[in-house]
Fold this sequence. Notes:
This protein is an alpha/beta fold and 430 residues long. It folds into two domains: 2-19 and 241-429, Enolpyruvate transferase domain (UDP-n-acetylglucosamine1-carboxyvinyl-transferase, Chain, Alpha-beta prism), CATH 3.65.10.10; 23-238, UDP-n-acetylglucosamine1-carboxyvinyl-transferase, Chain, CATH 3.65.10.10. It has twelve helices and 23 strands. The protein has helices at residues 23-35, 49-60, 95-105, 126-134, 171-179, 199-211, 246-256, 276-282, 316-324, 345-355, 390-400, 421-429, and strands at 2-4, 13-17, 40-43, 64-67, 75-79, 87-90, 109-115, 138-140, 149-154, 160-164, 187-191, 216-219, 224-227, 236-238, 258-263, 286-289, 293-297, 306-308, 330-333, 359-362, 367-370, 382-384, 406-409. The strands form six sheets. A four-stranded mixed sheet has the order 2-15-17-16, with helices on one face. β10 (160-164), α5 (171-179) and β11 (187-191) form a beta-alpha-beta unit. α1 packs parallel to α3 (95-105) and α9 runs parallel beside α11.
Amino acid sequence: MLWPAPLRGRNAVSARVVIPGSKSVTNRALILAAQANSPSILKRPLISRDTELMVAGLKAMGVGVTDQTVGADPAWRITPSKLQGPAKVDVGNAGTVMRFLPPLSALAQGDISFDGDPRSYERPLGPVIAALEELGIEIEHDGRYCLPLVVKGKGVIPGGALTIDASASSQFLSALLLIAPSTSNGITATHKGGALPSMPHIDMTVQMLRDFGATVSVDKAAQNWRVESGALHGVDLVIEPDLSNAAPFLSIAMVCGGSITIADWPKQTTQPGDQLREILTQMGAQVSFNDEGLTLTGGESIHGIDIDLHDVGELTPAIAALAALADSPSHLRGIGHLRLHETDRLAALTREINSLGGSVTEDETSLRITPAGAFGKGLHGGTFHTYDDHRLATAGAVIGLVVPEIEIENVATTRKTLPDFPGLWQSLIS
């Protein structure tokens, strides 16, 4: 199915947007709440394919998840229970689900089978599996160290010290830290390997562990994290808006002119998406806090940017789309790990922007983008393929704001993190 990207051109907007809850916070909260000694209430969780897969996996192992929605704000009540197998879990193509649930399932009594979309077989999971085996967990994977697999839970994880290479994904480390309080001896995890990507996501994991009552010590210089064994407590938690998902919506004001306000933007947060404030300011926007949230006002042009996005790689598709519409070249660096996401995002962005008349060159870890002209002058319409990657779809929509006749292939993939992206997008630019 092709979705015609709505065209607005340089016609100023003035809108307020309520962004659904953070996927990263929602899925971490679900894992922690499942281990707590009392129920938790998660308010404004993200309800999307990725979080629904996480909920289904928890329910399959015996965790209670019930709807507690009041009015327009969704809410879930998470009631922990002793985890039990046998159970089958579908991870889809969700990185947090395929990496966070297998460690948790080792606390179950019985076999827990994991399978997913074909792309999930190609995504890296080996370091998590190897670390669990180092902790004494039996896992059937036919020596492949990837999906599909079976965790043969014994109801207990001894814990202890382990070494892990999390250079391909910070989720590898987070996955082990999140279950550490429920192990017999806690976990001391040391990263050995290339630079850790997305350090803000590790910081998020640490903070949320502490919010649920865990004792965590961190030595970033030694790349060492220690989580003590101990009870987690149920919490009432309001999930922050997903700031990474705000990127395409903020882009509307940068591309079309005018202003966009993101409601309830937190003043303090561990979400990597908070760096959008600084990045988009460098690209020519004005950003300010007010009673409504965070407001971005577009400038007379979009400036190119030379930036290391290693810690905020998930923002790359939106930044690349803006760079293709800028008044000067951009160099997006430190993003080699994006080749292992839902698709190879560097190759996909290069291919799709170039197919519209753009000029993008890639190397192993970066993209160089030379605009064909400011605000899409020199670009032309065409099909923007998404490769089942939600952030490719939203990037195409940003370009389609000023470039006529762009059609997004499989826009439904945005449901991974946004319940109704096409409807919300159309409502803002009509």
